[in-house]
Amino acid sequence: MAIIGSIIKGAIEIKGALTSEPNHIEEQQKVLEMLLKTASNTDFGITYDFNKILESKNIQKTYAETVPYFDYHQLKKQWWHKVIDGEENITWPGSPDYFALSSGTTGKKSKRIPVTNSMIESIRNAGIKQVEALSNFDLPAEFFEKEIMMLGSSTDLQEKDGHLEGEISGISASNIPFWFEGYYKPGRDIAKIDNWDKRVERIAEKAKDWDIGALSGIPSWMELMLQKVIEYHNAETIHDIWPNLQVYTSGGVAFAPYEKSFNNLLKHPITVIDTYLASEGFIAYQERPETDAMKLITDNGVYFEFVPFQPEYINQDGSLKQDAPSITLAEVEIDQDYVLLISTVSGAWRYIIGDTIEFTDVAKAEIRITGRTKFFLNVVGSQLSVNKMNSALRQIEEKFDIEIPEFTLAATRINDEFHHHWYLGTETSVENKVLADTLDEVLKKANKNYKVARNKALKGIKVTTIPSSIFSEWSGAQKKKGGQVKMERVMSEDKFVEWENFVSENHSI
């Protein structure tokens, strides 16, 4: 019997039983008050008179009316460039010890996002909450004695001007508590390898020495790593190497597109748990097995606001209009897409994180990520979100019994007429035109705006199928391989030209 595992599981279950459901609306009010009080004497707090906001009868409303929205580039241009240059007390007291590098899904130049000690503590607290939630998933005691493979970016952080830089997964892994190190794989030495391919090669070499019970990482890169480990050991599934693998903690992107191809790497099903860790903070985690929705962490140094994701509030480049209305957690509704705004203990204020979400349960503050604001395809009024694209492709998978874990598309012009050109990462003998016609019909039935656009300026769909590996090779060519990297789902016309040139050079269509 797994005595240590039973003790750990018992302790988690007791803690869970003693922890009551918080009042999320009240917790958010407290978080905002804490943020404003803590930063009231910073340059940002003085400029926007946080002390006056704190005197208001409705702090949340006054805060929204006083402080504008900021995306990364706006916040950097106006404020964070001073933080990056080493100035103190700009948007948060003192200066951060870390900067999270994030090139996201657009552009090659990395963003530098401040990560304060308060944020490190916030991320650690969120991780503990997630571990405590495992008591809801009916896992055997033996599971709590197994090792955890955390496939993030390199923990070999770079020192620059008195601070350390790296991706948030690398920063988090470099700050794991000492008691967790015995469970953590691939271990500090391998995790420090900067080259993703070499790191995965070392993981494959050492794989049979480990008893992995859980995986954690972004689906596309996790799947690629598992394939490499399976190939290295000439195995049929990952369970031939890690027989006790029972849990996969996904994060950052929807798991659904990868579910079919991911499951083909397994001998038997495992528990998939979603999390939402961004460079700007730990946003949400899946608390219970009866849903794949995630619970917003409302009492942990992050204040949330929501802007209805409607075309009139979004600029053509995907940015948010300043006159777009925002609402609080007390005002949200289910089944409505929202642009997510955060204010944090790292000195981000009304920050447009770039994701869109929907609520599945308001009382429990549970959400799903539905897409990216910049991936909203609204050329000629088609109003396609990533969520709608993913749903359509799941129907295509089922109809033709194929796997489509990766895709990208753009609105292109052919003889001055608009078409949507989709590239699908899949292995299939189904003709491209058949896939295009079927996808077109699925989208028409599911999205009335798309159907209207197809009867007007949007003249059709073109589909090109390519191996899924091309997508990871593209990310590598963009210097974005591994870690928190996410594939662009919707590209601008200029970016799409680069993509098509890359595909033609690396794959004969």
From TrEMBL:
It comes from the Bacteria. InterPro entries: GH3 (IPR004993), GH3_C (IPR055378), GH3_M (IPR055377). GO terms for molecular function: acid-amino acid ligase activity. Residues 297-364 form the GH3 middle domain. GO terms for cellular component: cytoplasm. Residues 390-493 form the GH3 C-terminal domain. This is GH3 auxin-responsive promoter. The lineage of its organism: Bacteria, Pseudomonadati, Bacteroidota, Flavobacteriia, Flavobacteriales.
